[in-house]
């Protein structure tokens, strides 16, 4: 990659960001009535205490997602839509801690799904030891055992890390197998964190754009 001149880069990037924001302002709203409930699944990604309520990676923005995820979870129960909840769950030896502070250690409260979502229940819990839940054998087994599923509604955190990785890998999986599937990400049901150069708003916008250009169906909201 060529190192660009800063002023030129900032000017061009500003124009690009404005264009992306214009696109995101026009995203559609999806209704559950448009979805075949018996062929759909709600995927709850990392709505754990370690991202929402306590620990080194706790984010207020993630905590604020809890009511929306609970709302969608309850709707899915009513419609008999299957649900999966991924939960970060690491050992002390996790190489991921070379990139991130220690978080969500197995057996601690941080690795538990938040009580509000846990109390609704009804999901298959899959623990994950990396940022990409698709890589977990338990998920691939679930996918094989549920071949009728062709619509995935993704919620949780972080938009630019675990959500984006899972969404684009899932999309690529169906592309590779020449199968039609919808991978839907409602923007008001995902979020990320603010920390230094990791600007939450910028990361959300760029993650949404990257998912869109990879065939993920990014929408404003999903409602009854």
Automatic annotation (TrEMBL):
Keyword flag Mitochondrion: no
Pfam families per record: Isochorismatase
Domain Isochorismatase-like: residue ranges: 40-212
Gene Ontology biological-process entries: pyridine nucleotide salvage
Keywords: Hydrolase
Molecular function in Gene Ontology: nicotinamidase activity
Record's protein name: Cysteine hydrolase
Species: Acetivibrio mesophilus
């Amino acid at each position: 990659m060529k190192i660009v001149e800063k002023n030129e880069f900032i000017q061009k990037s500003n124009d690009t960001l404005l264009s992306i924001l214009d696109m995101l302002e026009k995203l559609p709203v999806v209704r559950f009535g448009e979805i075949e409930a018996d062929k759909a699944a709600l995927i709850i990604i990392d709505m754990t205490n370690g991202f929402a309520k306590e620990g080194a990676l706790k984010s207020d923005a993630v905590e604020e997602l809890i009511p929306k995820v609970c709302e969608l979870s309850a709707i899915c129960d009513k419609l008999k839509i299957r649900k999966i909840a991924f939960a970060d769950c690491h050992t002390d030896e996790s190489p991921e801690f070379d990139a991130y502070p220690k978080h969500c250690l197995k057996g601690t409260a941080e690795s538990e799904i938040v009580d509000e979502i846990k109390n609704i229940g009804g999901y298959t819990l899959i623990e994950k030891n990396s940022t990409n839940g698709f890589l977990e054998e338990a998920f691939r087994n679930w996918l094989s055992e549920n071949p009728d599923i062709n619509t995935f509604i993704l919620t949780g955190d972080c938009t630019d890390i675990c959500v984006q990785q899972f969404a684009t890998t899932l999309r690529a999986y169906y592309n590779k197998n020449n199968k039609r599937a919808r991978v839907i990400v409602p923007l008001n049901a995902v979020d990320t964190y603010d920390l230094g150069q990791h600007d939450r708003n910028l990361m959300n916008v760029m993650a949404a754009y990257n998912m869109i250009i990879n065939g993920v169906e990014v929408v404003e909201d999903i409602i009854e």
